[in-house]
Amino acid sequence: MTEVTTPRGPSLTDVATLAGVSHQTVSRVVNRHPNVSEATRRKVRAAISELDYRPNAAARWLATGRTHSIGILAGELAQYGPSSVLMGIQDAARGAGYFLTVVTLKDYSERAVNEALTDLLNHGVEGVIAITPHVSALEVLAEVQGSTPMVTVGGGHGLGRDVALDQEGGAIAAVEHLMELGHTRIAHLAGPLDWVDAQRRLDGWRSALGKHHLGEGPVYQGDWSARSGYEAGRAVDLDNGPTAVFASNDQMALGLVKALRERGCRIPRDISVIGFDDVPEAEFYEPSLTTVRQEFQDLGRSCIEALIDRSGELAVEGDSFRPRLVVRSSTAPAAGHRP
């Protein structure tokens, strides 16, 4: 029997020989050790590039005791917000020299969350980022915190290591924009209230109305989908109802606008509509959608920074960002209002 062999890729020793340094020096460069001169670091990187050397993750784990892997506990990645957060984390992790191991949740029971965490820890992750917007999952995580550093995305719930977009502040900015246009009857199209983001945007809507002594308009219940926004639009009272609607995400705003226009409502002349997220298609809606933009790349970078301090060790700090209002064509002054 003829033995079939596969070509061996370049080794760390090959890189060391080409760069004219020791293999320990190459290892320090690969593992981002600070005690290497910049000139040596450039020489080693040039050799790595020339040989197309790829460090073996398993070998590095055995040699250093570190995997340079971060676990992601994720749910609902089909939604724009969570998937965009994951992309931002992935970009930031790659830049910091870390790999991601992603486990998705099929449900948010205590058993499912515990099994997912166990799976990540069995893969040797050095820290965990939880993109789990459901209240029940965050409550479980608050109970099972262990020695592994963990950061939650917008969770709170006593976890203490939280990186968040200021959902409530973003909602307040949206509602105050409508108030500045003279609207006093402002409804809210809410997301599913077992999501933390939906709860906080609802809280922001209520807070803004209360601060300006305005009564609450109707709350229409959605599930993040354009279909649920469409159904809400079919239920809006066009005679004595709101003159503006703050939708908790852009997809629901899209469905809402379609239903209102089918009923003969002119957007924004009759009713102004504002969304949340600033999905890439928002500026191409008809009319283009005024919305609240979330900076997911900044959020992803801060998630990684919340785990990794300057020395490359895992830390436990958090951060918060306020979304930015993007004004387009779906909002206009209320009838009779002069800006």
TrEMBL record:
CDD domains given in the database record: HTH_LacI (cd01392), PBP1_LacI (cd01574)
Domain HTH lacI-type: 10-64
Gene Ontology MF term list: DNA binding
Organism (species): Arthrobacter burdickii
InterPro entries the UniProt entry points to: HTH_LacI (IPR000843), LacI/GalR-like_sensor (IPR046335), Lambda_DNA-bd_dom_sf (IPR010982), Peripla_BP_I (IPR028082)
Protein name: LacI family DNA-binding transcriptional regulator
Keyword Transcription on entry: yes
Keywords per UniProt: DNA-binding, Transcription, Transcription regulation
